[in-house]
């Protein structure tokens, strides 16, 4: 890789040539006690606040103040169809048709809703295939859902694990497991991208194998949405869920996204938990007895959505839409490659990168394994003005986010990391 070197001027030059550099100024950076902005590398956990978000939220509050209930139908942006405008922008980000995406509820709740619709055990076809290190909330949701329908989770959850001595999954192992389970397999459900290792899975091949076995295939894209191209529709994924507060900068705990492939989304016979907001729009206010779902993923909405929350999502989606996933991904590959290059140059024995080395198998995040498992390094990074993210038992996750992190951020971070490592010798 001769496009990088270890000088500061290399970082400065890369920033000068960066077409996304101007977007940094659109975000608010948390500050240290001395008032300097933190080097923020935690967008994988909570994305930064766009400066324009406050105005979007204020506009909703003003409309509420001025119009009360009439705000649903009048004003610059009537609330009744507020999220109808947002769903297509979100669909663009995850590579779906507009009708396949809806913003509603929150991630783990949506996982429960997807299980109601897409876990349909029948005869011996009962098994669910997951990764062994799936995010805890996903494991709890699936296990508790199974218990709720009187199925013992231990009987049906099957996991695929890294090979002995490795941390990443091989696609061939996942496909091998799918083929082995064959007509016992009801559902494949995996994280894409993995929250711990940063590994992006080959969703097209996994979907193909799952469908070949007669199963449905869903992905938790909490760490994928806004980070990597997901191409959910073209990869023939059955359903996916994600949150909007990580790479999508939509404020802490904000609503999540649901993708449902059009072949399911437009089928009124797919079982689902119902609420009036999933009802066909023409009938919604007719208050009839029988539920008739709206076509598309909107038919999985339950309640009328919180507009203040949607305002924050709108603000951030507009930025993402303006830049586009292609430009975001192009910078991301280069910026993360630069981080990888600088860390490799440290050649520090206490530190190893466990994230895939091939950019096509990862997003913005590099997971750094601290070989003696000491959290001390992380604590010292924080007090040196860096915010990365710590994952028990022994990993520091560092995510340079293309819209607001600069090459110079990455350069400064690695300088600080080097000093920190040498002062933390065990
Ligand atoms: C962040 C994250 C969640 C969080 O779920 P919420 O319901 O939004 O709190 C769930 N699953 C994965 C894989 C995540 O990364």
Give an overview of the whole structure.
The chain has 426 residues and is α/β, with parallel strands linked by helices. The protein has two domains: 8-44 and 325-421, Aspartate Aminotransferase, domain 1 (Alpha-Beta Complex); 57-322, Aspartate Aminotransferase, domain 2, CATH 3.40.640.10. The chain has helices at residues 8-16, 53-67, 82-94, 107-118, 136-148, 153-156, 171-181, 203-212, 262-265, 307-323, 325-346, 376-383, 407-423; strands at residues 27-28, 39-40, 49-50, 101-103, 127-131, 157-160, 185-191, 216-220, 239-243, 256-260, 351-353, 366-370, 386-387, 389-391, 395-398. The strands form four sheets. A seven-stranded mixed β-sheet has the order 4-10-9-8-7-5-6, with helices on both faces. Strands 11-12-15-14 form a four-stranded antiparallel β-sheet, with helices on one face. Strands 1-3 form a two-stranded antiparallel ribbon. Strand 14 (389-391) and strand 15 form a beta hairpin. Helix 3 packs across helix 10 (307-323). The two termini are 32 Å apart. Bound molecules: pyridoxal-5'-phosphate. Residues 106-108, 135, 137-138, 191, 195, 220, 222-223, 243, 256 line the site of pyridoxal-5'-phosphate (PLP).
């Amino acid at each position: 890789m001769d496009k990088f070197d270890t000088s500061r001027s290399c970082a400065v030059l890369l920033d000068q040539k960066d077409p996304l550099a101007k977007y940094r100024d659109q975000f608010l950076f948390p500050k240290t006690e001395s008032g300097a902005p933190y080097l923020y590398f935690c967008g994988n956990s909570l994305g930064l606040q766009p400066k324009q978000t406050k105005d979007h939220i204020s506009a909703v509050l003003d409309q509420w103040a001025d119009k009360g209930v009439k705000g649903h139908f009048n004003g610059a942006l009537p609330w009744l169809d507020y999220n109808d405008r947002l769903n297509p922008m979100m669909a663009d980000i995850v590579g779906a048709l507009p009708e396949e995406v809806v913003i509603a509820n929150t991630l783990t709740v949506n996982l429960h809703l997807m299980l109601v619709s897409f876990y349909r055990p029948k005869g011996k076809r009962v098994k669910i295939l997951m990764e062994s290190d799936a995010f805890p909330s996903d494991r709890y949701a699936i296990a508790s859902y199974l218990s709720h329908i009187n199925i013992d989770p231990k009987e049906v959850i099957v996991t695929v694990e890294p090979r002995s001595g490795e941390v990443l999954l091989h696609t061939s192992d996942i496909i091998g497991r799918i083929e082995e389970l064959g007509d016992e397999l009801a559902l494949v459900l995996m994280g894409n991208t993995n929250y711990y290792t940063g590994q992006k899975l080959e969703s097209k091949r996994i979907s193909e194998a799952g469908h070949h076995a007669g199963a449905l295939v869903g992905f938790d894209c909490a760490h994928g949405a806004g980070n990597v191209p997901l191409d959910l529709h073209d990869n023939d994924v059955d359903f996916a869920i994600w949150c909007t507060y990580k790479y999508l900068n939509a404020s802490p705990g904000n609503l999540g996204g649901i993708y449902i492939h059009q072949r399911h989304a437009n089928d009124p016979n797919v079982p689902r938990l119902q609420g009036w907001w999933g009802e066909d729009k023409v009938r919604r206010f007719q208050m009839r007895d029988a539920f008739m779902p709206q076509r598309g993923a909107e038919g999985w909405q339950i309640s009328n959505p919180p507009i203040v929350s949607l305002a924050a999502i709108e603000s951030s989606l507009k930025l993402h839409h303006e830049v586009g996933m292609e430009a975001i991904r192009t910078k991301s590959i280069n910026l993360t490659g630069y981080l990888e290059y600088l860390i490799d140059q440290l050649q520090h024995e206490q530190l190893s990168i466990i994230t895939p080395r091939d950019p096509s198998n990862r997003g913005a995040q590099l997971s750094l394994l601290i070989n003696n498992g000491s959290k001390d390094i992380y604590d010292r990074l924080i007090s040196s003005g860096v915010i990365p993210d710590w994952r028990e038992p022994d990993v520091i996750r560092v995510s340079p986010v293309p819209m607001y992190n600069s090459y110079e951020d990455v350069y400064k971070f690695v300088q600080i990391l080097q000093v920190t490592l040498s002062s933390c010798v065990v």
